[in-house]
Amino acid sequence: MRSQLDRKDLEIVEYLKDHGRDKISDISRVTGIPRATIFERLVRLKEEGFIRKFTVDLDMEKMGFPVMAYIMITFSSSSGENQRSLARKISKLENVLSVSIISGQWDIMVLTANRSMKELSSLVLDRLRNLEGVANTLSIPVFEWIS
Length: 147
Hints:
Blueprint: H1 7-18, H2 24-31, H3 35-47, E1 67-75, H4 83-91, E2 96-101, E3 108-114, H5 117-127, E4 134-141
Antiparallel strand pairs: 1-3, 1-4, 2-3
């Protein structure tokens, strides 16, 4: 198992960031890397965990979720809840797009997409703040999503 990416690997990965649905022949044509090489490297990059999944970049507003927000959470270690376990529970909540364990003043950062401010409010007040291990929250609305 290789632990580093070489120039060709990086070129393929960089191409896939914006063109994840392209065929191997298209990637080959644009990068100049032979199709067989691209196929072998994609298999290896997936097997070794460099590529976890191929996904889409959704326009959340068009999807009906115009209210996006980051929610910062302070973890309460006295609750008996494990921080990783809490983060996994949060990641399974409806409207949650991503959860990260971070350092600094806050312990967990959550990105959400909601149909309305009322729905965001319900997520924070009724669901997040009632979870064991959540001490404090700070909601930060997103004015404009750039990337």
